[in-house]
Amino acid sequence: MKLKFRTPAKVNLTLNILRKREDGFHELETILQMVSLYDELELESLPLGIELECDTPGIPTDETNLACKAALLLQETCRVEDRGVRIRLKKNIPFGAGLGGGSGNAAGVLMGLNRLWNLNMSREKLAILAAELGSDVPFFVTSPCALGVGRGEQLEVLAPCSKFQVLLVFPGFPIATPWVYQNLKLKLTKRENNISILRKFLSLSDIASLGSQLHNDLEPVVIQRFPEIQIIKDELQARGALGVLLSGSGSTVFGIFNDPEKARVACAGLNGEWERVVTETIGSFSEFLPGEILNYQ
Ligand code: C5P
What we know:
With 297 residues, the chain is an alpha+beta fold. It has 2 domains: 2-158 and 288-294, Ribosomal Protein S5, domain 2, CATH 3.30.230.10; 165-280, Alpha-Beta Plaits (2-Layer Sandwich). It is built from 11 helices and 11 strands. Strands 1, 2, 3, 4, 5, 6 and 8 form a 7-stranded mixed β-sheet that branches. The protein has a 4-stranded antiparallel β-sheet with strand order 9-10-7-11. Helix 1 (66-77) packs parallel to helix 2. Cytidine-5'-monophosphate (C5P) binds at residues 25-26, 28, 134-136, 151-152, 177-178, 181.
């Protein structure tokens, strides 16, 4: 049996760091939103073993890849070492870009193998396993829009806002997440928490007001080291974006728009050699998951 489907990217509409924890992670609050840039996954049953094929240079195909780790974790947890899979991965989401591409792939493997291996695990159980793989992985099995707290793995589902456009601009270099967190200088005086304001604007689908509230505590660290990020931000702002922000720990900068044509014109007009794509917010898993996986749990 073979399953073919796509896994999306995400942006963080806000990311507030609250404090450093004893385990080295940071306590945070973030609003995550899936967007319509996709990697392509194919899962094919094998009698034994876990194989990964990916022809994108720089992407590991051994057990260090999160997609392989996801398959191994599921195999061990469900004690199905007698079942195998060949994973074929086509990357469209850049690596080290703050778009959660690898996390989405891992979540896709969990949901897909749950079907392929007939494991009958609930989304809630898959989300618990997903948290072992990375802070962003549970989001990709939970909801297209969610509030994440703790490491980012404790999620509250948020009702989808009406669709808006997210113009993603990738500067062409990756950024290592641990480096960003290590260089974070936490302020003693905290700004006012903007989560409830953002939630309100999301629920009202007020994209202009939402744009004015985008915030990421990781952004200053990244801009100080990579000044090009500020240049991209300024360009997006000048092209009429309603809000502009670094996604996660970068390196992607995004601008939001409430008109597809305006987003398209801004994308074409950006003055720089950066990779860019206009995406739309995702409102439902049915936009990218096939019925076989969707209707399974
Ligand atoms: O959870 P994940 O493997 O994606 O995290 C990658 C790195 O990012 C961690 O090793 C840690 O350095 C940092 N991180 C953090 N606090 C978080 C999430 C990630 O310090 N809440």
